[in-house]
Amino acid sequence: MTSWETIFAAGAGRETLEIKRKVEDEGTWYRRIIRGLEEGSGQWSSPEKNILPGTLLEDTSWLAMHPIELDSELYPDLQKRLLEVDPERTRLWSSWAQAVFGEEVDTAMAAAFILHAGTVCVLTGAGISTESNLPDFRSSSGWWRKIDPKTVASVEALTNEYELFHSFYSARITALKQAEPNNGHDILAAWEAGELVQLTATQNVDGLHQRAGSQKTAELHGSLASFSCSVCHESAGKDAFLEGVGCRVCGGNLRPDVVLFGEPLPQEAWEKTFEAVRNADVLIVIGTSLEVAPANQIPRQTRGRKIYINKDRAGTWEDFDLILTGSAGSVLKQIDFWIQAVKQK
Ligand SMILES: [Zn+2]
Among this protein's residues, is 116 annotated catalytic? Predict the structure, then answer.
């Protein structure tokens, strides 16, 4: 007696699509569509020999049906085919994704959104740099010399306590020398190079996106990588700042080009970001709790899909389409894994 093994079944209404093989007939596949509910109705296709079973799923009519039975052998093939279609245009995308991506359904959906978007904009905060061995000068445990950075990273300190200001920023710049861009920065830079990402806006001043290779960036709070005179604004080098020498033009005190407490935000970077976000099909917010205005206004500018990646769910009062909790590096790595599964044919 012949025994049959089902590796795929999907159905909609009174129609069922099945792929089976005879157990003793390894490497030979049969496909049939059953119309109606009668047991044993429908014609089996002629046997397909020596092909991968996924080949029988090349036409995607099954996407209009509900998954019924799927052998895990088919997962890689089904995953790739699912990522190739736009979730927004396919009514049953989610139920198939639940079935074939399991716990990774959300990172897979993020990958699909990115793959099918015309423009993607990224907003990053401190959370993307935590895996870069950067001390957090803002956290209470990381306060430099137990001084609240609000008092030293300020116009007040620059003007009246330059020595303190200078040693604070010298310490931060020296600490940056030990930091390296991490996996998360690298993936975003690779997505930009692959034309998946059009702008990376960051609240960070560490310059790690640029060091990883991102070129289309907006630094919303300035940068620790460039310096100028606090009096005449002439640009200056890092070494001149660290040595504590004065401006070569007027002798004024040098400073890093970061936004200090008491200073306005850099208008050009903010305008560029708002414009890019308004036009984006997908906005990815990474490693920021979005607690501070005006950064918390950024996600509200877009009509596109919004993806939130953070170690906790702070900031999720925003209306995000997808919330992915975990370290920025590991979540981005998993999303990138799905993207590469489609790109590498
Ligand atoms: Zn000067």
Answer: no
